[in-house]
Amino acid sequence: MGTRTFDQTVFIGDNDTTYTTTSNDYHSLTIWGDTLQIVGKRTPTSSSAEGHQGEICIDNSHIYVCISADTWVRAPLSTW
Fold first, then answer.
1. Cα(75)–Cα(65) distance, rounded to whole angstroms?
2. Which domain holds residue 33?
3. Is 35 found in the same domain as 21?
4. 36 and 65: one domain?
5. Is the pLDDT of residue 39 over 90?
6. What is the pTM of this model?
7. Does residue 80 share a domain with residue 47?
8. For residues 11 and 18, is the Cβ–Cβ distance under 8 A?
9. For residue 75, which of 65, 38, 66 has the smallest C-alpha distance?
10. What is the DSSP letter of 32?
11. pLDDT classification of 26: cutoffs 50, 70, 90
12. Are residues 61 and 75 in the same domain?
């Protein structure tokens, strides 16, 4: 697996405030109390696309979770 460069690191403060190491794109991830919001959309290219265990991505149709190195699973999204 290749080396990945991450755009930013998110730190959570005592009062649920998020801080990042960059200020130009800090809205990629928002945490409000018990809610996590992933603002940017990303679709892994395949179930064996590069990924690190624990990564979570979302697009308009699915939520994707990397369960081990370069191994993705997905679940469809629907309204209820």
1. 9
2. 1-40
3. yes
4. no
5. no
6. 0.66
7. yes
8. yes
9. 65
10. E
11. very low
12. yes
Q: Is 17 left (phi over 0), alpha (psi -120 to 50) or beta?
A: beta
CA separation, residue 79 to residues 31, 39, 61, 69, 76 (Å): 23, 19, 11, 31, 10
Q: Is the pLDDT assigned to residue 74 strictly greater than 60? A: yes
Instruction: Please tell me the predicted confidence (pLDDT) of residue 23.
Output: 47
Q: Give me the long-range contacts of 64-71 (CB less than 8 A, separation at least 24).
A: 69/1, 70/1, 71/47
On whether both 58 and 75 belong to a single domain, the answer is yes
Mean pLDDT over 2-28 rounds to 56
Quote the CA–CA distance of 38 and 1 in Å, as a whole number.
25
Amino acid identity, position 62: H
Please name the amino acid found at residue 1.
Answer: M
What's the pLDDT at 25? Answer: 43
21 with 48, same domain? no
